[in-house]
Design a protein that fits this description.
Elements (H helix, E strand, L loop, with lengths): L1 H22 L1 H10 L5 H23 L1
């Protein structure tokens, strides 16, 4: 069951990434150009918030 959940999660990741590349490539390029100007601390904080939200959502759904 756990392996199946991991594979499903990875599949959703690929779907979302693919949609971004397919539907908004110019936005992705603009974000890639902007990324080096964002302070490392802000990137780290955003990443940690995203991880916490993801874990919280999984906890609520699987709880």
């Amino acid at each position: 069951m756990l392996l199946q959940d991991i594979v499903i999660g990875f599949a959703f990741y690929l779907i979302i990434e693919g949609l971004v590349y397919a539907l908004a490539p110019s936005l992705l390029i603009a974000m890639a150009r902007l990324l080096p100007t964002v302070p490392e601390g802000a990137l780290r904080a955003t990443g940690l918030i995203a991880v916490a939200l993801g874990v919280g959502l999984v906890w609520l759904i699987r709880g």
